């Protein structure tokens, strides 16, 4: 048996027929565009944008949004082809299983678990800042120490933990978002963006755009061209959700025509809104104001500056009632986003468990609520820990790099599928193959390269932990391969692990050469982690039969 063995397309289609019977073809191009706008305009715009502007791009964050959109266009078209062929749960994990085999499916599944988990943590941290601002509007002030991580001068982010726990418990009980509720949330999110642009435009101060592209500080990624591209990779988080359009391919009346319209038009509209939003945000307040703890809640910072300055320099908000109305709408929208991210994570983990790659306990359903309750409880703890103790910048960048990595594998998967299964039925075909998937890989990889090296270190460490689980558990319990693999398969996994060890050491040394004193812990941890795993993988390679 081989780690490259693919899950048969016929088996996946049978699963789709059993679990998703009755999907009606009701969506037209306008419906897909509306779905896309609702999915794209989410937490990323209201959270990570301020941090990226203050630390990387300045007012040129508008250009960063345009660059990020290009990567989404190419990846979205590839997602659309896959979803029209394989309409089952699991997203890119399932697509990879059908095209590139179990090992790559494991890698992408483990990556998606990271993406959704840290994504939910990022949103919950931002929710906490907005919640604090909302309460402050009514004279209720929470001690800052209980709204910040230890790395930001606090003790623990309690509101972020509480919202994760509440949403997780809701998921365990199996409460579903109705189409009506979804419609209300979409309306709220779009309204917040439009109101923010309309009201804020009159308070733009032209001096805040000078310089439009701040001069590079001498460090890679801090303003200048490298800062714009790094910010594009960071704010890529704001586009998470656009692939929801591709997952609706089976419900489109005319997917060949309507899918590209839905993807491209929704991306285009949202990109314009994002650019206008960022233009107002950095025009109302100087981009440097978004540095620090409040950068994760940029709308609150900007809204407070929409008014006239008094003799003492203090700004009196022109629309005080609007401030809390916008914050309340954002809080409601955030709760929905956290729910969707935690639900998506549980679906991927559930699929991996069903395939035998993770313990069976995580695919067990609650006898009363019929939900993967133990799965939800596990990630309630993990995401809560991220939200409580990890800075927003770290989890935000981890979400972006995980998403970009997933998009790269989906684009590669389309190339493989076209070669291996050219006659397989497709409701939608990605246009201009191989240009579109190759361009998707190139643009996404280009943005990944510009992300901070400490983000790469954390991604590699996470993936190596995944390799450990696959070597010592997944390969033994694989249902597709029935737990039986050739020696070559074990050696391939071990060799891949050694390659990641080498990459970790190289990146750690490069990062350390330009790191602040506070980053020394990450350097020594990386070396220790690499040395430990070098022994593990080398032993696995030589003594593979004992695994």
Automatic annotation (TrEMBL):
Q: Which UniProt keywords apply?
A: Membrane, Transmembrane, Transmembrane helix, Transport
User: Does Repressor count among this protein's keywords?
Assistant: no
Query: Any stretches that span the bilayer, and where are they?
Result: 31-53, 59-80, 92-110, 154-172, 184-204, 224-242, 263-285, 321-344, 377-395, 401-418, 430-450, 456-473, 493-510, 522-541
* Name of this protein: Amino acid permease
Cite the source lineage: Bacteria, Pseudomonadati, Bacteroidota, Flavobacteriia, Flavobacteriales
Gene3D superfamilies reported in the protein's UniProt record? Amino acid/polyamine transporter I
GO MF annotation list = amino acid transmembrane transporter activity
Tell me how this protein sits in the membrane. Answer: Multi-pass membrane protein
Please state where this protein is localized. Membrane
Q: Which domain of life is it from?
A: Bacteria
Extract the Pfam families matched here: AA_permease_2
- Organism field: Flavobacterium nackdongense
Q: Which GO terms describe its cellular component?
A: membrane
Q: Does the keyword S-adenosyl-L-methionine apply?
A: no
């Amino acid at each position: 048996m081989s780690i490259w063995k693919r899950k048969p397309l016929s088996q996946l289609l049978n699963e789709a027929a059993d679990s998703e019977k009755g999907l009606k073809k009701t969506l037209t191009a306008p419906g897909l565009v509306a779905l896309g706008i609702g999915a794209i305009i989410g937490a990323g715009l209201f959270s990570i944008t301020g941090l990226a502007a203050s630390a990387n791009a300045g007012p040129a964050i508008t250009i960063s949004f345009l660059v990020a959109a290009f990567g989404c266009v190419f990846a979205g078209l590839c997602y659309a082809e896959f979803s029209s062929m394989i309409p089952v749960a699991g997203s890119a994990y399932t697509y990879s299983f059908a095209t590139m085999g179990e090992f790559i499916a494991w890698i992408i599944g483990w990556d998606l678990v990271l993406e959704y988990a840290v994504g939910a943590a990022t949103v919950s941290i931002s929710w906490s800042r907005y919640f604090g601002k909302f309460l402050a509007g009514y004279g209720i002030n929470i001690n800052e120490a209980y709204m910040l991580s230890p790395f930001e001068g606090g003790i623990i982010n309690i509101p972020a933990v509480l919202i994760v726990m509440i949403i997780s418990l809701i998921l365990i009980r199996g409460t579903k978002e109705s189409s009506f509720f979804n419609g209300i949330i979409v309306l709220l999110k779009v309204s917040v963006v439009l109101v923010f642009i309309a009201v804020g435009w009159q308070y733009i101060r032209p001096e805040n755009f000078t310089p439009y592209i701040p001069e590079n500080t001498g460090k890679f990624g801090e303003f200048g061209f490298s800062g714009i591209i790094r910010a594009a990779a960071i704010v890529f988080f704001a586009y998470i959700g656009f692939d929801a359009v591709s997952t609706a391919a089976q419900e489109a009346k005319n997917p060949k025509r309507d899918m590209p319209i839905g993807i491209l038009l929704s991306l285009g509209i949202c990109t314009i809104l994002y650019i206008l939003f960022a233009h107002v945000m950095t025009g109302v307040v100087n981009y440097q104001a978004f540095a620090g703890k409040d950068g994760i809640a940029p709308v609150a910072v900007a809204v407070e500056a929409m008014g006239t300055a008094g003799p003492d320099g203090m700004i009196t908000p022109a629309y005080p009632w609007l401030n809390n109305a916008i914050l309340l709408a954002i809080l409601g929208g955030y709760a929905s986003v956290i729910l969707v991210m935690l639900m998506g994570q549980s679906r991927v983990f559930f699929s991996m468990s069903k395939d035998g790659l993770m313990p069976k306990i995580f695919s067990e359903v609650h006898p009363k609520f019929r939900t993967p309750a133990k799965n939800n409880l596990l990630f309630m703890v993990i995401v809560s820990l991220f939200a409580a103790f990890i800075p927003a910048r770290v989890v935000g960048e981890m979400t972006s790099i995980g998403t970009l990595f997933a998009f790269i594998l989906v684009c590669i998967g389309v190339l493989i599928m076209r070669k291996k299964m050219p006659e397989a039925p497709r409701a939608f075909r990605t246009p201009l193959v191989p240009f579109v998937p190759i361009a998707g890989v190139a643009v996404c990889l280009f943005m990944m390269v510009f992300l901070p090296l400490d983000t790469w270190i954390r991604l590699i460490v996470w993936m190596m932990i995944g390799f450990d689980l696959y070597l010592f558990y997944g390969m033994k319990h694989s249902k597709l391969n029935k737990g039986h693999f050739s020696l070559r398969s074990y050696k391939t996994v071990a060799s891949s692990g050694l390659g990641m060890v080498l990459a970790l050491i190289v990146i750690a040394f490069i990062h350390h050469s330009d790191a602040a004193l506070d980053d020394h812990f990450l350097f020594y941890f990386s070396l220790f982690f690499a040395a430990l795993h070098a022994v593990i993988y080398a032993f696995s390679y030589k003594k593979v039969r004992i695994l």
